[in-house]
């Protein structure tokens, strides 16, 4: 089995490659080719333990991601999400690779929003706004910049120091102007918004947005978690990563449904259906579009397989014998 370090992964895989990998796996998922039981979440004290298995018949890969999430970890100077991904050969059960689950999660979550931005946002989108200057917030902006000619971005975070550090690091890394947002008024400028926080109430009001904005909302993955105003959600064209998982897990859809503002039928379908050409994406520059993701196991499989294949090709990683 190969152990592939986070440092190796950083140099092996680019965001555009990860977006391409998400394109194929979401297409497979929506056409019923890959198998993905709904994930199991156990709560042990303050820690949540997530177990996410998946299988893709295309290259005979199986994967499992084990993640821990402790919401107060940032106050201890620790990452909220930690874990491991194991990649296996489904023909013989061999363990092929083991890698950092935190890196894979950030890569594939960013790449999914990149894919959604590519198929749903206006091609002339130049201004982005990101909520959450954390681990996901960084790959969200990187992915949006990979598919749209973004020149300027605003970062919102409750933690002013985190926002300042993000603005400096992402400006340097991406070669665009990233500003710490002083007020929600700047949202009027944003063509693409990504929400990547643990918020439990809407981060802004519908009236503060551009009428034809595209939003990638990735933060809410429990029924009590909410980042978006329900009246905006019910008036947008809604696409998701996986219908069943989103309807089981996210307050961003369950709250507007429980308030009677919309029904399940309001969700147009999955991003994989758009990729497969069985569902229309954005049809005009005037529409408002939402990609809501809770994160699904096949994304981890696709990202891990991409990393593994590139590591094999470039002779990277350390062979580990159990
Ligand atoms: N959809 C997916 O596939 C997916 C994948 C990974 C993580 N997530 C979720 O995304 C969220 C962010 O994860 P992360 O790993 O980046 O966490 P993180 O702790 O690294 O960053 C979160 C940031 O959001 C900020 N924040 C929290 N509440 C806020 C608010 N109301 N307004 C503005 N900023 C606020 C925090 O200060 C922090 O800087 C979590 O809820 C996580 O569960 C979703």
Description:
Helix content is 35%, strand content 25%. By secondary structure, it is α/β, with parallel strands linked by helices. It has two domains: 2-105 and 298-319, ornithine cyclodeaminase, domain 1 (2-Layer Sandwich); 110-295, Rossmann fold (3-Layer(aba) Sandwich). The strands form two sheets. It has an eight-stranded parallel β-sheet with strand order 9-8-7-10-11-14-12-13. A seven-stranded mixed β-sheet has the order 2-3-4-5-6-1-15. Helix 2 crosses helix 10, helix 3 packs parallel to helix 4 (135-147) and helix 3 (101-120) crosses helix 10. It is globular, with a radius of gyration of 19 Å. The model has no long low-confidence stretch (mean pLDDT 96). The structure holds nicotinamide-adenine-dinucleotide.
Q: In what order do the strands lie side by side in the largest sheet?
A: 9-8-7-10-11-14-12-13
Straight-line distance between termini:
8 Å
How would you state the average pLDDT, rounded?
96
Number of helices: 10
Identify the CATH homologous superfamily of the largest domain: NAD(P)-binding Rossmann-like Domain
Shape annotation: globular
Please, what is the oligomeric state? single chain
Order of helices and strands: EHHEEEEEHEHEHEEEHEHHEHEHE
Radius of gyration, Cα only, in angstroms? 19 Å
| Low-pLDDT segments, ≥5 res | none
**CATH architecture descriptor text of the largest domain:** 3-Layer(aba) Sandwich
Present as ligands are: nicotinamide-adenine-dinucleotide
Helix content: 25-40%
Structural class by secondary-structure content: alpha/beta
CATH class of the largest domain, anyone? Alpha Beta
Portion of residues in beta strands equals 15-25%
Largest sheet: 8 strands, parallel
Strand tally, please?
15
Fold-level CATH name of the largest domain: Rossmann fold
